[in-house]
# Entry
Amino acid sequence: MSNEIIKGALYVVATPIGNLSDLSDRAKKVLSEVDFIAAEDTRVTGKLLMCVGAKKSLISYHEHNKREKGEEIIRRLKNGESGAIVSDAGTPAISDPGEDLVRLCAENGVDTFAIPGPCAAISALSISGLPTGRFSFEGFLSTNKGERKRHLEEVKESGYTLIFYEAPHKLRDTLSAMYSVLGDRRISLVRELTKINEEVFRTTLSGAVKYYAENNPKGEFVLVVEGAKPEDKKQFWEDLDEVAHVEYYLEKGFERMDAIKAAARDRGVAKSVIYKIWNEG
Ligand code: SAM
# Structure
């Protein structure tokens, strides 16, 4: 697409997560040229705009006013103004305000354009050293003990690399809960990305619990946790005996020999073994 600002459109603009040089030229241009900017905290965004020499009308848009402000923003966009949304740091709508505004745009036929840039989750994953092919972004865990445990139970068997955001004062509790529900796995604790004290601590969950029992967590963290290994996952057939296992496939419509073969493959045994048990049963 061209770099001209389109009237009546919303630009979703990523901003730095610690290093001002990460604000792209395109982001600067958009922030300088749109008619208004919706900002999570107008003071934070005001400082960013001062650094890039842009003077703009800012609308405060956050979790607690998103309904009224969302309507006002849509009205202005539909009247032909161009707008941008930014959060305090990183990519809007990713554990930050923006998701609802983009949905409102979609419902109202308003065009949206992404101005990509920093995102702590993706940056942390890229240097985690853990598999990046398939991953699941889990955002923040709840501070409520029960909900946190439920969330972890839900992802326990996923083979995807798991990405969590966390604040330093909650890190110890989070690591203990992860260790107790997920067991001992590899974890990369990625801290203070793009800042002077940027650090990747590649360890295990038990190693991280021990380390932070003795050291004070400081700075902003992304936790990148290894997914479940195939051998850790409970298989659907583990509670079935061989006959019930074959019956499972028969009920799915398999022919008898195919069902025996499938059960044998699941269990890692020769099909003659299952065949014999099936015939005796
Ligand atoms: N939308 C943002 C993004 O795209 O990264 C995330 C916003 S979320 C409210 C804030 C969380 O992101 C922090 O608690 C921390 O987990 C993570 N984070 C933000 N900046 C970071 C940084 N420089 N280093 C490590 N983690 C960071």
Remarks:
- The pocket of S-adenosylmethionine is lined by residues 17-18, 87, 89-91, 94-96, 119-121, 165-167, 190-195, 220-222 (CB under 6 Å).
- The two ends are 67 Å apart (CA to CA).
- The chain has three domains: 10-118, 121-232, 242-280.
